[in-house]
Amino acid sequence: MKFLLASSATGGHLYPALAVADRIRARDAGAGILFVGGAEDIGRDLVGEAGYPVARIDAHGLDRRNAFKALISLMHFLRAARQARHILRSFEPDAVLGTGGYVVAPVAREAKRLGIRVYLQEQNVLPGLANRISERYADKVFLGFAEAAPAFKDRAKLVYTGNPIRTAIFSAPAARAALRGRFGIPESDRAVLLFGGSQGADAVNAAGVEAICALSRYEGLHFFFVTGQRMYGEVAGEIAHRLGVIPARIHVIPYADAIWEYYAACDLIAARAGALTVSEIAACGKPSILLPSPNVTNDHQYYNAKALADVGAAVIMRDEEMAGGGLARGIEGLLRDEARLEQMGVAAARAAKPGAAEEIADGLFGTGPS
User: Fold this and answer.
1) Per-residue buried b or exposed e for 323-361, using 16+ beta carbons within 10 Å of the residue's own CB
2) Of 28, 52, 239, 276, which one has the fewest beta carbons inside 10 Å?
3) Quick check: helix, strand or coil at residue 113?
4) Is residue 127 within 8 Å of residue 151, measured between CB atoms?
């Protein structure tokens, strides 16, 4: 069988597609898999490194600010649709999966017109525009969070699977002891992972600097602080300036591809609330302080975070709450309450959906929920 996966190049859309592709390949090593992305997408190296071919279409976002820009958007869409039709006819997939971004709508539309099965995977509690537009073309919509259901029109199409995440994430709990040994963290010590997403976040970095400097007095406390490439030098320099020297137990890192290793080694995670981050934290069974970005459409990170907070697995802190030492106080308070940390971790694990990638792959093969 052959499968076409349409996705933007952002990690939140691309990693779920890769997780499903890996599941397809594990089930049928001979399956044909083709990724389709936008012509100007970056980050496609991840797909090539995973061994999957990529085709591109000239897809652009919808701009509705005025009639002229809307007309230009329509012209872009029609051109992208023609390109998608050519790819679909050449590749002849048995099914299409769209995981989000403006590339999905033209691919889903043309696949439906050609009689190809169409599936969508929505990561967030508040669905993106592309998936909401494309619902009309879909046979099924796989939901990362059950709370996303009201945003779609046809409940019969919805299947709550959870978000498909990388296989390595699931090995985190079993690898804890080995990784803490490698990082030099005694079992009696505590470790915190702090990050603002793959690109970093200025507000999280600022609060992180304050937290690390305030809590550096605790000898048994380790930090892994992933700053993003752009801000790494400035953040590391500020911590070094304030502390005189960065202690060996404080690790300032520009980027962490194997983020699961830090999940495994840490006792508490403080992070932005992207859909995949929230799902990965749950899969690892970790307590968390979730820091929803205010700079996203419809405040959707807050609602992602709320899904864990509502079951007692996470604490939510807005940017204004974590500033001025708020994040430091939140971290310190939770680390002092071991019983609560344990309860939060158990609640996170209960909220996880570890079979998501496999369930979605079953749907693409035609053996999933009808």
Assistant:
1) eeebbbbbbbebbeeeeebeebbebbbebbbeebbbbbb
2) 28
3) helix
4) yes
- The 3 state secondary structure assigned to 114-132 is CCCEEEEEECCCCCCHHHH
| Within-domain flag for 134 | yes
CA–CA distance from 231 to each of 128, 198, 211, 212, 353 (Å)?
A: 28, 12, 17, 16, 33
Looking at the structure, do residues 235 and 153 belong to the same domain, yes or no? no
3-class DSSP assignment, residue 250: strand
Residues 335 and 358 in one domain: no
Token pair 């490194």 is found at: 49
159 lies in the same domain as 172: no
Provide the greatest CA pair distance for the chain.
Answer: 65
User: Cα–Cα distance between 205 and 194 in angstroms, integer?
Assistant: 9
Q: Are residues 125 and 185 in the same domain?
A: no
pTM score, whole prediction: 0.90
Closest CA to 5 of 67, 115, 88, 123: 88
Q: Quick one: 131 and 268 in the same domain?
A: no
Query: What confidence tens digit (pLDDT) does each residue in 139-193 have?
Result: 999 999 999 999 999 999 999 999 999 888 888 888 999 999 999 999 999 999 9
Beta carbons of 330 and 315 less than 8 angstroms apart: yes
Q: Are strands 2-6 and 158-160 parallel, antiparallel or unpaired?
A: unpaired
* Tally of domains within the chain: 2
Do 158 and 187 lie in one domain? The reply is no
Which residues form the domain of 210?
A: 168-351
Separation CA 289–CA 162 (nearest Å): 21
